[in-house]
Inverse folding.
């Protein structure tokens, strides 16, 4: 079903709830807000359908990746590498290594950039926290198109709560995943606004609206994905 001037595409007829019981009405309101903020939006019930859509849409392009558990869960490196030249720091030997930094730099000069979000407000803002900056940088400039790919578990009612989610849920989980020894990773409960050199939340980026002079599409998936 096409919705609102073909900028929102809902694939199928039934919304799927998560454990947080995000209702179909809330999802629709969120997509309306994204369109008002000038994004194109596609909704898929499953990560498999979303991955197939991205594979078809991006075929033949150079593709950069931001670090994303969601994109890993979807197998996007494997799917896109068959028909595209990909540059991804997630394929580096170690985070922060020379290999990582080279791959991250190359990802900033691609036709398409794929990333996720740490949280999204129902009012249409997208929130990301970054430690090195490559993921946020890639979402801001220098591509033909940026895709934000995420599950409906990332949606929060307000911008304030979306920022809270990014800092107190996504960042501690990411720090733990990366093997950091920060207080949030060790205790796993909240952000401690620490001074650790291993801190990964050095930048907070809020997309208030779509950036100018670049296509941006939200690919929303009716599943719990990522952190």
């Amino acid at each position: 079903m096409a919705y609102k001037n073909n900028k929102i595409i809902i694939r199928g007829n039934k919304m799927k709830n998560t454990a947080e019981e995000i209702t179909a009405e809330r999802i629709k309101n969120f997509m309306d807000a994204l369109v008002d903020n000038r994004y194109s939006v596609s909704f898929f019930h499953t990560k498999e359908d979303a991955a197939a859509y991205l594979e078809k849409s991006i075929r033949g392009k150079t593709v950069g990746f931001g670090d994303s558990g969601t994109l890993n869960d979807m197998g996007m490196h494997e799917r896109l590498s068959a028909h595209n030249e990909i540059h991804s720091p997630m394929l580096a030997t170690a985070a922060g290594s020379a290999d990582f930094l080279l791959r991250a730099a190359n990802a900033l000069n691609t036709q398409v950039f794929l990333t996720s979000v740490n949280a999204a407000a129902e009012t249409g803002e997208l929130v990301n926290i970054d430690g090195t900056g490559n993921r946020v940088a890639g979402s801001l400039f220098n591509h033909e198109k940026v895709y934000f790919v995420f599950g409906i578990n990332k949606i929060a009612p307000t911008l304030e709560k979306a920022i809270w989610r990014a800092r107190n849920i996504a960042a501690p989980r990411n720090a733990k995943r990366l093997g950091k020894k920060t207080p949030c990773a060790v205790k796993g409960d909240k952000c401690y606004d620490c001074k650790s050199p291993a801190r990964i939340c050095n930048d907070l980026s809020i997309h208030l609206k779509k950036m100018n002079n670049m296509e941006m599409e939200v690919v929303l998936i009716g599943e719990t994905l990522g952190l």
